[in-house]
Write a structure and sequence with these properties.
Elements: E1 16-17, H1 24-34, E2 41-42, H2 51-55, H3 69-78, E3 79-83, E4 89-94, E5 100-107, H4 121-128, H5 141-163, H6 167-185, H7 192-199, E6 203-209, E7 214-221, H8 225-237, H9 245-261, H10 264-276, H11 290-295, H12 298-308, E8 314-320, H13 324-334, E9 358-364, E10 369-376, H14 384-395, H15 401-409, E11 413-422, E12 429-437, H16 443-459, H17 464-481, H18 485-499, H19 504-514, H20 517-527, E13 533-540
Parallel strand pairs: 4-8, 9-13
Antiparallel strand pairs: 1-2, 3-4, 5-7, 5-8, 6-7, 10-12, 10-13, 11-12
Amino acid sequence: MNQPSRLILPASNRITITLRRLSTILMVMVICWSGLLPDIALAQTQIANPLQRILQLRRQTPPETSSIQPYLDRVIEQLTEFRLDNGMKFIVLERHQAPVVSFLTYADVGGVDEPEGQTGVAHFLEHLAFKGTTRIGTTDYEAEKVLLDRLEELDAEIRTAKANGKEDTVVQLQTEFQQIESQADALIKQNELGQIVNQAGGVGLNATTSAEATKYFYSFPANKLKLWMSLESERFLEPVLRREFFKEKDVILEERRMRVDNSPIGTMVENFVDRAFTVHPYRRPVIGYEEDIRNLTPENVQNFFDTHYVPSNITIAIVGDVDPAEVKRLAKIYFGRYQARPKAAANIQAEPPQQETREFTLELPSQPWYLEGYHRPSISHPDEAVYEIISGLLSNGRTSRLYKSLVEQQRVALNAQGFSGFPGDKYPNLMLFYALTAPGHTVDEVATALGQEIEKLKAEPVTAAELQRVKTQARASLLRSLNSNMGMAQQLLEAEVKTGSWRNLFQQLDNISAVTTADIQRVAQATFRPENRTIGKLLSKQE
């Protein structure tokens, strides 16, 4: 078998922080919480070069037909899937409209998989995955390793000295720690991965961490397939997850301070989810609690990696101008090096049914916000399309019921929206509504107005015209997300990993078309019950 060439490649700058679906200010804050929510920890490495222009070329768009089947048939013809002997799966979709390829590595692990007391470790690992390997991002790993070993020892000694109140010893150890860390820094090749990607014409080097998954992605010109194989396989073959560990911890703590501790709406969202869930790990912020972050060690991160980053827990989508046979040949060479290991068994405690309304109030220096959430089933539930339509009816833009009623007509809110699948959708989750109270009005007025719209949905059948409009919007939104190579890669993997087959992505379009007014009333009545509701009120604190 051919052996992959050894490349000395880069170790990227920090790549983190994420966004998911909200719009407006709360959307940004909520997502920062979750992926910091949906913290999604979005690593932001911007790379500018001519390939960005190519990526903007118009893609082939699925036609507006009564059925998605013709488009699905074409996708099936152009899609190849295979699994390596070690268990790693690949989904390859040919799109030859432009000489570019998008790559997405999907690790089926996120915040819900973290051990108790180690919240934030999945997000922390995502940061460190850009620091390099034993060959990438270093000038002399053997020398660096000695220094990294010593840094871990010193960190443990400092913790012990602090616990024993030996301040003089702490000062001495910290001085040595800084000296050793400086020596280790001198051996690092900063952002080497980003530099190589940029020089080879790549764009969009990034990553996200959510409650359920960690995703790494970027795009390359079509003739750089082999380079991507080398870069991405090296990244998780022998990662050095201790490199700049302690500096990165400070970065993540600052992220938490900025997006949660010093943010009224960030604090509100963290408290809301903690109230809505009692046992399911959705209740924990993806960025982690401050104390847990401070106590994380390189050993914690390495153990988490060894447990969850096994080949059978990783799925890769490659979409663009590629030859599937060549992809498979190179995948066997580069990713076939990974040793098969058993996948960790999920140990997710199911959330018990909520029996009564949960309500809390926070007073913080902020504009008043109102949050209301209801428990709903996971993405794999037969009523998933119904929930999507309900979300569209109530919350999708300026034509939605909440916006027209609360913002335009009653003027009790400056903005009023909602969405389904919070803070994730792999497990039973929440349909969340939120509103920013208008000046001169109270959160209680907002709560009353929101309640009226929800009761109206339960009691009165939706008109055929309104239902058709929302169906068209939902269909168009999904099809637009498939327009780009990266969007298609993302959606294929979400369906594959969370529902068991990428084909369910297209089935969802037909499911949306099949939703009836009776379905909407049935699901609304079953979901929007007082005992299934969590309420959060953020009030302005008087200074």
